[in-house]
Design goal:
By secondary structure, this protein is mainly alpha-helical. It has seven helices and seven strands. It is globular, with a radius of gyration of 24 Å.
Length: 209
């Protein structure tokens, strides 16, 4: 540009165009999710358990009666059965978990929390993150939950892994009859407590009625 003084002015700087994200570049959102996971245990005041031991305690506290087994936990934690069994064994040794005979199969056993295990969860390092999520406006909190659920389902399908979810949201859950809920997968009636628990047989895409 030529000014009245005959001097040329530099052309105005245009903002740089955003570069397309390379497939090799880590997704910032994915990195944030991993960072949150590290923060949960990295700043915990209670370091007496490892991250996977805390995960196991939470799992057996929230899994339904069909899913409280070491093999189901191995699927949930995306690890080998041997590693899952060692984690369970260590928590039994600490008195936080215990084995109980299976109600319908005498050859099997279920894993249950002890009173000490339930007391331990009162100091769960995940509590701070839960509090942060609850501070979100309801609409954002619901959208966040739905987005995470969709991502978990898509990634599980890519990895040929089971999708875990609550019985009340499952396609196997038949609520067509009043005052009763039937699981078409296990062929058993479900209790009110079952409806809010995690299940390894969860079917996110099945028709529900």
């Amino acid at each position: 540009m030529i000014t009245s003084a005959g001097m040329s002015e530099p052309a105005p700087m245009m903002p740089p165009m955003p570069k397309p994200e390379s497939e090799a570049t880590p997704c910032h959102s994915a990195e944030l999710l991993l960072h949150l996971a590290r923060l949960v245990h990295g700043g915990s005041a209670d370091c007496s358990l490892t991250a996977v031991q805390w995960t196991a305690l939470r799992y057996f506290a929230s899994a339904n009666r069909f899913s409280r087994t070491p093999s189901a936990f191995s699927e949930f934690n995306a690890t080998t059965r041997g590693t899952a069994s060692q984690t369970v064994k260590s928590l039994i040794g600490l008195g936080l978990l215990e084995k109980r005979a299976h109600e319908s199969d005498g050859r099997s056993f279920l894993i249950e929390l002890t009173d000490a295990g339930r007391s331990k969860l009162e100091h769960d390092p995940l509590a701070d993150l839960i509090a942060c999520i609850r501070e979100l406006p309801p609409a954002r909190r619901a959208a966040f939950r739905d987005t995470l659920g969709e991502l978990a389902e898509q990634l599980s399908r890519k990895r040929a892994a089971p999708v875990f979810g609550k019985c009340g949201d499952c396609g196997h859950c038949d609520t067509s009859k009043p005052d009763s809920t039937f699981c078409r997968c296990t062929q058993l009636m479900l209790s009110g407590q079952d409806m809010s628990t995690l299940c390894i047989d969860f079917a996110p895409g099945a028709n529900k009625r």
